[in-house]
Amino acid sequence: MENVRLNNGITAPILGFGTYQISPSQTKAAVAEALKLGYRSIDTAQYYRNEAGVGAAVKESGLPREELFITTKAMTTGYRATKLGIDNSLTEAGLDYFDLMLIHWPMQDDLGTYRALEEAYQAGKLRSIGVSNFNRAQLGEIMANFQTVPVVDQIETCVLRQQTKLHQYLADYQIVHETWSPLGEGAGRLFNHPVLKDLAAKYDHTTAQVMLRYLTQRQIMVIPRSTNPTHMAANLNIFYFALTAADLARVQALDEKFSLSGWPSSMTLDEDY
Fold first, then answer.
1. pLDDT at 271 > cutoff 60
2. How far apart are CA 121 and CA 271, in angstroms?
């Protein structure tokens, strides 16, 4: 596993296990399998309704809590609702703290929401705080009003939408670029793209592994999701090869600035990234 260093000094695995669209009834088993395979970073959210399953798997794994990096996201807006939501998430997951909590998406009162996160960070309930789906202007507003700079912006990123300009903006402020849907939600044209298939054959890995390695070599945190143990293991097994500079350039040339989900529309304000 490779790690990234966050701007508050904490280190986090560059590759984690995503739980989006894993049902609450399946989450505990899926996360338990991920931890068994070697994942040490788990991503959940209030919106996913599976924080309890994540927490149960963590508790029953027997792994030292300090070896794990657990992320959740607030779906609330405003100070009071978010303050209550943080405590509810901790109770739901049965955890004393989260390693990272993000504002899941921009809403009406992001400053109030971030104030609640910052207070929880200062109180030790959260080891780090950040945002998700925020563009440059929205990030700028947060940084203009708070001393605590977000450690992460989790945004849609895959080889078809590489967020080049926002990636540089984040780097300038020492904010880690993290991606949701790093494999493009399983889009067939990605897994069968001739350039990716050629590189997969060259490195004796799958096209999915090539995509994940490309992103991690750019220092982008990735949280691929799968409930298939074979795919889960393969997604984790990407650190035994590295793309050459020439091959990195080949993948970079695949960027179409194309959103597979079309959401959220606010992110298009920074296009062409």
1. no
2. 32
Task: Please tell me which residue in 39, 48, 114, 214 is annotated as part of the active site.
Answer: 48
> Does residue 133 surpass a pLDDT of 60?
yes
Structure-token pair, residue 220: 């982008």
* pLDDT single digits (tens) 194-249: 999 999 999 999 999 999 999 999 999 999 999 999 999 999 999 999 999 999 99
Give residue for tokens 């091959």: 247
Q: Which two tokens stand for residue 227?
A: 């409930």
Domain assignment present for residue 273? The answer is no
pTM exceeding the 0.70 threshold for the entire prediction: yes
Binding residues for substrate: 104
258 confidence band (pLDDT: 50, 70, 90): confident
Beta pairing class for 3-5 and 11-13:
antiparallel
Q: How many helical (H) and strand (E) elements, i.e. helices and strands, does the chain have? A: 11, 10
Question: CA-CA distance, 142 to 150, in Å (whole number)?
Answer: 8
The CATH number assigned to the domain holding 97 equals 3.20.20.100
169 is catalytic: no
Q: Report yes or no on 255 lying in a domain.
A: no
User: Per the omega criterion (within 30 degrees of 0), is the bond before 110 cis?
Assistant: no
- Count other C-beta atoms under 10 Å from residue 233's C-beta: 16
Q: Is 48 exposed, middle or buried (0-12, 13-18, 19+ CB in 10 A)?
A: buried
Task: Give how many domains the chain has, as a whole number.
Answer: 1
pLDDT in tens, 158-191: 999 999 999 999 999 999 999 999 998 766 678 8
* Cβ contact 212:15 at 8 Å: yes
Domain of 123? 11-184+221-226
Tens digit of each residue's pLDDT (9 = 90 or more) over 32-62 = 999 999 999 999 999 999 999 999 999 999 9
Does residue 96 fall inside a structural domain? yes
